[in-house]
Automatic annotation (TrEMBL):
SUPFAM superfamilies linked: PLP-dependent transferases, Winged helix' DNA-binding domain
Keyword Transcription: yes
Family according to the record: In the C-terminal section; belongs to the class-I pyridoxal-phosphate-dependent aminotransferase family.
Protein name: PLP-dependent aminotransferase family protein
Superkingdom to which the source organism belongs: Bacteria
Keywords: Aminotransferase, DNA-binding, Pyridoxal phosphate, Transcription, Transcription regulation, Transferase
Length: 472
């Protein structure tokens, strides 16, 4: 939270033109303050200076500042309370996600885009601030002093116990608290596994193609070469996997990124048979497995063979990626080596964050958060599918009804892809084509887009599609 006061350079940007008439100066100040909140220069939770103090420092009338505070409070940009001052509110945060990441998507949002469909960012305004604050108070009142020392590198015992129950109940995972390692997100889980596998003598690891480009970089950082492996309509193709000679492969079986397919039951069985035949390992990235909109989510692959599947997950899609909080459930033979490597990397995950998350799980707030996100994201997916059908007739949406993104195949008349992307950029809409995520190139002239929707309101989604279609 930024302190109040006018010594921040952000306040200088609010200064209206001295040459403008008084009424115009008031509008300029309001517009500048509104934009500072929208853009994130004034972050949610920032306390604004008293109107008299800010007016003196900017050389404007106190009435101009007071009127702006009142107007933006009425609009929801600011909030105020008797005797507590004026603060930047939370309402505008969802409209300005700074970074879009989907299963490791490293591409930043275009700063000039009016609407960004880049995949990966959840709706950060849904973060359960009240529940998090209550849990913080409860934890500080109850956490024993010795728990604040150097932690078990596997994680706080109460969180690992809570996670074991949660993952078994919601994802069908075979979860022993002793085999859970709390990590800084799935990225660290992948890196930890990479280091351990390298120490075992492995030099290669299979990755999905198409897939998240970040996985290859994470394994490379651990000294492993990524071997891209193709998918078909049922999931990772077992023939090329077997021929590659790798003994470890990374997968997203519940909801593949980016194609959106769910691995078929037959393919899941074939992958497990492969792992057993080579005494290999399947790394399961369950990045958004909780969000399925047409039926109950399919259980995790790990539940079928916990000794040949390493399960990873995080709160990046359900709470916020900035928490850097995830977990790794490794086979028994790898657990100790992973914990040792975790200790050498960072001496363990922050204790207070772990205790807070454990409190959310055991108190039922995390389940309520998942239900809240489920309702919001399902509505937004439905809105996007309907808007595409209206403004791009003939569009095919592929993949299962799940997660935070869809694959949209636009008819060939909207191509070629390069031309469509240039038109989208001119229209102020940020999109990513499916070709950004893999080596294969389609043989037809259709445009295939990976469209993220969770961070956008239904109105923003409709506007973005209209802009793409040139009708807004």
């Amino acid at each position: 939270m930024e302190p109040s006061g006018t010594n921040s350079p952000a306040w200088e940007l609010l200064l209206p033109s001295a040459a403008a008439p008084a009424r115009r100066r008031g509008r300029q100040f309001q517009e500048a303050l509104r934009e500072a909140v929208r853009s994130g220069r004034l972050a949610a939770g920032t306390r604004l200076p008293p109107s008299r103090e800010l007016a003196m420092d900017l050389g404007v009338s106190r009435g101009l500042v007071t009127e702006a505070y009142e107007q933006l409070t009425a609009e929801g940009y600011l909030r105020s309370g008797r005797g507590s001052g004026t603060w930047v509110g939370d309402s505008a945060r969802a409209a300005v996600p700074e970074v879009a990441r989907e299963a490791g998507d490293p591409a930043p949002r275009s700063p000039d885009a009016l609407v960004s469909f880049r995949p990966g960012t959840p709706d950060l305004s849904l973060f359960p601030r009240a529940a998090w604050g209550a849990a913080h108070k409860s934890v500080l009142n109850t956490l024993e002093h010795h728990a604040l020392g150097y932690p078990d590198p596997r994680g706080l015992p109460q969180l690992r116990i809570a996670l074991a129950e949660l993952l078994a109940r919601r994802r069908g995972v075979v979860a022993d608290p002793g085999r859970i390692v709390v990590c800084s997100g799935v990225a660290q889980a992948m890196t930890l596994l990479g280091f351990v596998l390298r120490e075992e003598g492995q030099r290669t690891v299979g990755t999905e193609d198409p897939g998240s480009p970040e996985h290859s970089a994470l394994f490379a950082a651990a000294g492993l070469k990524a071997v891209p492996l193709p998918l078909d309509d049922e999931g990772l193709a077992v023939g090329p996997l077997t021929a590659s000679g790798v003994r470890t492969v990374q997968t997203t079986p519940a909801h593949h990124f980016p194609t959106g397919i769910g691995y078929s039951a037959a393919r899941r069985t074939e992958l497990l048979d492969w792992a057993r035949s080579v005494d290999g390992l399947i790394i399961e990235d369950d990045y958004d497995g909780d969000f399925r909109y047409d039926r109950a989510p399919v259980g995790a692959l790990q539940g079928l063979d916990p000794e040949h599947v390493a399960y990873t997950g995080s709160v990046s899609k359900s709470l916020a990626p900035g928490l850097r909080l995830g977990w790794l459930l490794a086979p028994a033979r790898l657990t100790e080596a992973v914990a040792v490597r975790k200790r050498t990397l960072d001496l363990g995950h922050p204790v207070l964050d772990q205790a807070l998350f454990a409190e959310l799980i055991t108190g039922g707030d995390y389940d309520r958060q998942l239900r809240r996100c489920q309702r919001a994201y399902r509505e937004r997916r439905d809105t996007l599918v309907s808007a595409l059908a209206e403004h791009f007739p003939g569009t095919e949406v592929s993949g299962i009804a799940a997660g935070l993104h869809i694959i949209a195949r636009l008819p060939e008349r909207y191509g070629p892809e390069a031309g469509f992307l240039r038109r989208a950029e001119r229209a102020g809409v940020a999109v990513r084509p499916l070709t950004d995520y893999g080596s294969a190139r389609p043989q037809d002239g259709a445009v295939r887009l990976v469209l993220g929707y969770a961070h956008l309101t239904p109105a923003q989604i409709v506007r973005g599609v209209r802009l793409l279609a040139g009708s807004d």
